[in-house]
Design brief:
Length: 127
């Protein structure tokens, strides 16, 4: 079992930046693939980014490439999402997720790949 707690959300103007954090409980964090997803009101959950155990494999949704950066610090049991040049369309609840599986570029973008989810943190980008 692993528990995930996101933080760092808030209200920011378009063009601004935020860094989300996701702290995980447990001593096996380094064996989990970590992902970020988001869900805007009235829309389906959307993949944002994923990172493998040691960070050697990373994938992004096309909509955030070049603006968002996922990273992890296994010593701190934390995964981050640095979000730059934010746009109003980035407004959503952002969730981190964990999967104790082998990384797969295709599968790691799917919500069903993940076993554990955080409660989410709201990101609002004003125009």
């Amino acid at each position: 079992q692993v528990q995930l707690v996101e933080s760092g959300g808030g209200l920011v103007q378009a063009g601004g930046s935020l860094r989300l954090s996701c702290a995980a409980s447990g001593r096996t964090f380094s064996t989990y693939v970590m992902g970020w997803f988001r869900q805007a009101p009235g829309k389906e959950q959307e993949f944002v980014a994923a990172i493998s155990w040691a960070g050697g494999n990373i994938d992004y949704a096309d909509s955030v490439k070049g603006r968002f950066t996922i990273s992890r610090d296994n010593a701190k049991n934390t995964v981050y999402l640095q979000m730059n040049n934010l746009k109003p369309e980035d407004t959503a609840v952002y969730y981190c997720a964990a999967a104790q599986k082998i990384y797969s570029s295709g599968r790691s973008s799917m919500p069903r790949f993940y076993d554990y989810w955080g409660q989410g943190t709201q990101v609002t980008v004003s125009s």
